[in-house]
User: Which sequence fits this backbone?
């Protein structure tokens, strides 16, 4: 079954501190692609082949509201991020810290794939834009 | 081999889940595979049910353990195979192009250990040859001619390499050049031999000549085998390299060289599209859920969080204004 896409959101995720790590950012791109490539074949397909236009008037107001809500909820999650950062610092100072960090990164990678596939199941298709590379 | 008495004892113990866990971990430590342990435990079910003191609650720990062996559970509690290379028999059970994709992945892993500045060595040629094997697993066809010629050109640089490649598998990482040549030649031979399991096994043996790599190759293989089984792949199913994900989701080992193909990235640009049936609340949930997952991964690897920038919404041009 194929459903045409009616809305598209474009945004970028950037590190909020520290130098961008190309390797880690590229791994995130690969995880998104992995999720798309390994999605169950019987999932509904969402086609985004037609043209898209910026919203106008009331549409714009509504979609700006969506943007605000998303940003608000992400800001609310800053506390959880801080906790993860502190946990990482504690773990890295332990004798078996490197192994634990590797396990956490592997599990987090699985979570990214699961998040993309969960979205797909609910009618939301996530892809990466190839032009985010810079030489 | 797990004895039925050991299973009965575990199920009658005050902590049956822990007792069964101990049984399974003993078998895994002996190098046995989750599939084999699963089949053995599953074969005890009838006898467990036939026991005079049996009740349904008692078999729950056994069923849960079987699920953990099968992977029908949360990823973090699933049993993982020990770091042993897949056997030829296991490889032979994969569909044809999954075998080719696996051989190419093994070559990728071997190439990832090669420092790009390694003298007198055309790494680019080997990378592009590996890419051709990956592409073959998508297009479902492989032509040896051009790639064989290219590889022979590389081998001709040092005739000693040819002898080395024809010889037994080396366990040494010292000679990167020969190691990478062998890995790529094995992948090419795998693609050119109707994905002969022996050739694919050679590719994995070369790439897995190191303990760390061996566990990762086992992980790649198990992942592929699970997908092939779950989705009913056939000998005509294309298998793109993307199914494997990053080579090192946990971060590459210390001292490993940089990937020569790594693009310089400063961000991850995403597109999220949704169909008509999806409400704004659902989109909001999915975007936030995705962000949290990506942020967790980024923190795990770098210690720094992510932030959202340049948010732009669009509507399908055919949707009437005001909808």
Assistant:
């Amino acid at each position: 079954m194929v459903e045409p896409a009616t809305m598209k959101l474009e945004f970028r995720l950037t590190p909020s501190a520290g130098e961008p790590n190309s390797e880690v950012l590229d791994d995130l791109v690969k995880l998104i692609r992995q999720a798309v490539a390994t999605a169950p074949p019987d999932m509904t397909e969402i086609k985004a082949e037609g043209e898209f236009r910026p919203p106008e008037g009331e549409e714009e107001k509504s979609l700006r509201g969506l943007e605000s809500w998303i940003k608000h909820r992400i800001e609310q999650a800053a506390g959880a991020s801080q906790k993860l950062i502190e946990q990482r610092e504690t773990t890295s100072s332990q004798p078996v810290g490197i192994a634990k960090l590797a396990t956490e990164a592997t599990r987090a990678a699985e979570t990214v794939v699961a998040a993309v596939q969960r979205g797909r199941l609910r009618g939301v298709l996530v892809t990466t834009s190839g032009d985010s590379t810079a030489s | 081999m797990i004895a039925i008495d050991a299973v009965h004892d575990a199920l009658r113990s005050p902590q049956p889940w822990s007792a069964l866990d101990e049984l399974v971990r003993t078998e895994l430590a002996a190098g046995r595979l989750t599939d084999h342990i699963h089949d053995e435990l599953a074969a005890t079910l009838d006898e467990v049910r036939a026991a005079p003191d049996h009740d349904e609650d008692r078999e729950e720990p056994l069923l849960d353990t079987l699920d953990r062996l099968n992977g029908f559970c949360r990823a973090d509690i699933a049993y993982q195979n020990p770091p042993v290379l897949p056997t030829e028999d296991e490889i032979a059970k994969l569909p044809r192009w999954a075998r080719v994709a696996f051989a190419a992945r093994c070559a990728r892993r071997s190439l990832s250990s090669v420092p790009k500045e390694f003298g007198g060595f055309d790494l680019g040629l080997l990378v592009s040859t590996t890419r051709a094997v990956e592409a073959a697993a998508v297009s479902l066809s492989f032509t040896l001619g051009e790639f064989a010629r290219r590889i022979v050109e590389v081998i001709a640089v040092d005739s000693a390499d040819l002898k080395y490649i024809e010889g037994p598998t080396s366990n040494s990482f010292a000679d990167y050049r020969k190691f990478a040549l062998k890995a790529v030649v094995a992948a090419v031979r795998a693609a050119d031999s109707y994905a002969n399991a022996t050739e694919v096994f050679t590719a994995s043996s070369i790439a897995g000549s190191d303990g760390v790599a061996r566990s990762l190759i086992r992980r790649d293989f198990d992942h592929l085998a699970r997908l092939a089984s779950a989705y009913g792949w056939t000998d005509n199913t294309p298998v793109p390299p993307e199914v494997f994900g990053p080579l090192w989701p946990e971060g590459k080992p210390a001292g490993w060289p940089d990937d020569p193909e790594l693009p310089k990235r400063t961000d991850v640009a995403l597109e999220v599209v949704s169909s008509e049936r999806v409400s704004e609340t659902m989109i909001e949930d999915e975007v936030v859920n995705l962000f949290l997952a990506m942020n967790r991964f980024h923190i795990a690897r770098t210690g720094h969080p992510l932030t959202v920038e340049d948010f732009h919404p669009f509507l399908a041009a055919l949707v009437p204004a005001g909808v």
